[in-house]
Amino acid sequence: QVQLVESGGGLVQPGGSLRLSCTASGFTFVRYGMGWLRQAPGKGLEWVSSINGVGFTTRYANFAEGRFIITSENAENTVYLQMNNLQPEDTAVYYCAKYPTGYGIGRTYDARGQGTQVTVSS
After folding, report:
1. Measured between alpha carbons, how far is 90 from 50 in angstroms, rounded to an integer?
2. Sign of the C-alpha dihedral computed for residues 66, 109, 7 and 46 taken in this order
3. pLDDT surpasses 80 at 10
4. What is the pLDDT of residues 27-84, one digit of tens each?
5. How far is it between the farthest Cα atoms of the chain?
6. Helix, coil or strand: residue 31
7. Which residues contact 35 (CB under 8 A, 6 or more apart)?
8. 2: three-class secondary structure by DSSP
9. Among 32, 74, 75, 78, which is least packed, fewest CB within 10 Å?
């Protein structure tokens, strides 16, 4: 059974940083692409970033490019999202997602975690 457990969310001031973690179980981690999506209050689910199964290929949404960094640690079955220079518009629930192939983007995932809240406010 696939399980994705996010952590690392919280309250941060504008300009601050957070590092989200997602620990995966129930599948062979290196064989599948992983990603992060978010949902802001009153808005739809939005793709943030993806990384391929072996961790060499990454891609970002325009708003994340240059501020967010996605990495993975295969030995720990964990994917991270380092978020820098956070702004109030980054406030959202952030979800970790697994894709059905070695790489995926957008909402084509086949499993998703419960999410972790990120609030950016002064």
Report:
1. 17
2. positive
3. yes
4. 999 999 999 999 999 999 999 999 998 878 999 999 999 999 999 999 999 999 999 9
5. 41
6. helix
7. 47, 48, 49, 50, 51, 70, 96, 97, 99, 104, 105, 109
8. coil
9. 75
pLDDT tens per residue across span 71-91: 999 999 999 999 999 999 999
pLDDT at res. 57: 94
Residues 11-23: what's their mean pLDDT? 98
Token couple for 112: 């998703």
Nearest of 38, 33, 39 to residue 56 by alpha carbon: 33
> CA torsion, points 39, 115, 72, 11, in degrees to nearest 10?
80
